[in-house]
């Protein structure tokens, strides 16, 4: 499914973004230095920010078209998001965390089973999230993003909140999700190495713009 974005966005009196990208790859990466605007692009795609001008399309759906005042709200886009810091309910069990969102969005039981299996979290289901290691939390967060059957999965720096020794392992799980689920992925990373391992298509972000070459 092709994603196309051409947007300008400005935080009040600060950073301005003017980005154009189009990708039909299964795994697309946005790579660039800290503060270059990668997360801002992801938030625009998710519908968590509204651009001041431009349009965002996914397949034949128009999610945003500022000129015609069209803005599809986040929940109607059917996008799964995994944020930089896993946003899980610490006192809830893993199962309850997975059910949240899944039930609300009418997820398929088969999708839940597949997520649990792909991310190898079956033996963690009754554990409260606060008792898990960083890598386990990351796997649960990834499962939660995919269980409700999103049509697009957005991963913001999937590896940064885990220690370097674990990053390789999480990268394996991200690749496994990419392989097992048909859902296209857009991931953000400042690590060129990781991006080269995982993405079919890479866009380089610099000072709020998409540039042709890595910097
Ligand atoms: N809510 C906000 N209000 C004002 N400025 C913001 C806000 N959020 C981010 N910014 C600024 O916008 C710029 C781009 O931020 P963004 O988070 O998109 O970058 P990034 O490339 O994802 O960085 P990192 O890799 O460090 O997460 C930065 O200069 C940041 O300080």
Automatic annotation (TrEMBL):
Protein name: Molybdenum ABC transporter ATP-binding protein
One family name in Pfam for this protein: ABC_tran
GO MF entry, a single one: ATP hydrolysis activity
Matches recorded under Gene3D superfamilies: P-loop containing nucleotide triphosphate hydrolases
ABC transporter domain: residues covered: 2-215
Recorded superkingdom: Bacteria
Keyword annotations of the record: ATP-binding, Nucleotide-binding
Signal peptide coordinates: none
Family annotation (PANTHER family): ABC TRANSPORTER I FAMILY MEMBER 10
SUPFAM superfamilies: P-loop containing nucleoside triphosphate hydrolases
InterPro entries, sorted: AAA+_ATPase (IPR003593), ABC_transporter-like_ATP-bd (IPR003439), ABC_transporter-like_CS (IPR017871), Molybdenum_import_ModC (IPR050334), P-loop_NTPase (IPR027417)
UniProt source species: Blastopirellula marina
């Amino acid at each position: 499914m092709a994603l196309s974005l051409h947007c300008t966005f400005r935080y009040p009196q600060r950073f301005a973004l003017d980005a154009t990208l189009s990708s039909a790859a299964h795994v697309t990466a946005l790579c660039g230095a800290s503060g270059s605007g990668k997360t801002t692009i992801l938030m625009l795609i998710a519908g968590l920010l509204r651009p001041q001008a431009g349009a965002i399309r996914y397949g034949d759906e128009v999610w945003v078209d500022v000129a015609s005042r069209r803005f599809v709200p986040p929940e109607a886009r059917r996008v799964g998001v995994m944020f930089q810091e896993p946003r899980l309910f610490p006192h809830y069990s893993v199962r309850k965390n997975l059910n949240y969102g899944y039930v609300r969005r009418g997820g398929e039981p088969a999708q839940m089973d597949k997520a649990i299996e792909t991310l190898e979290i079956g033996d963690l289901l009754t554990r409260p999230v606060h008792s898990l290691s960083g890598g386990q939390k990351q796997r649960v967060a990834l499962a939660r993003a995919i269980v409700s059957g999103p049509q697009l999965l957005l991963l913001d720096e999937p590896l940064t909140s885990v220690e370097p020794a674990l990053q390789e392992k999480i990268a394996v799980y991200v690749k496994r999700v990419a392989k097992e689920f048909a859902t296209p992925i857009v991931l953000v990373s400042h690590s060129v190495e990781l991006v080269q391992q995982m993405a079919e298509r890479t866009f380089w972000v610099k000072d709020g713009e998409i540039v042709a070459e890595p910097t």
